[in-house]
Amino acid sequence: MINTSFVLECSVNGKAVSIPVPASKRMSAVLRDDLLMTGTKVSCEIGRCGACMILLDGQPVNACLLMAYQASGKELTTIEGISAGEELHPIQQAMLEEGGLQCGYCTAGMVVTLTALWESNPAPTRAEAEKALCGNICRCTGYEGIFRAVEKCGLSIKREG
């Protein structure tokens, strides 16, 4: 019988992880089932909705499409790693203040994606935010609150920076 398991060694939210997993397991399942990080949501499981978005070496990726072995030696950031303890990240705070969420199911993926955008562009235009979020689907908000949050957070970062 062929052994199809391996030891996944990576960093998740700044902490070293070493865990045996089947090579065929998706990162969304590793995060939720093995590491108990349920902020990463699972919805479509085909990479279309963005609910499972995580950062892989700073780039947004769908955890439902990322096989566990592909994360070996990488730095992963989940929604649980975006805030600084009890203090919300500016993106999270702006989403709350501007009504950028309703049911909340897509919110983690949206925040993760927008975090990657701000890392590269702290004051994005609406068009840049729309392009960044093209892989994230929200069925509740109509996106206006999300874009108000983008504008608010971009302006506050601009003033501070």
TrEMBL record:
Pfam family, one: Fer2
Transmembrane annotation, as ranges: none
Cross-referenced Gene3D superfamilies: 3.10.20.30, [2Fe-2S]-binding domain
Residue stretches making up the 2Fe-2S ferredoxin-type domain: 12-60
Keyword Iron: yes
SUPFAM superfamilies tied to this protein: 2Fe-2S ferredoxin-like, CO dehydrogenase ISP C-domain like
Keywords in alphabetical order: 2Fe-2S, Iron, Iron-sulfur, Metal-binding, Oxidoreductase
Domain of life, per lineage: Bacteria
Domain [2Fe-2S]-binding: 78-151
Classification via PANTHER family: OXIDOREDUCTASE WITH IRON-SULFUR SUBUNIT (PTHR44379:SF5)
Protein name: 2Fe-2S iron-sulfur cluster binding domain-containing protein
Species of origin: Paenibacillus plantarum
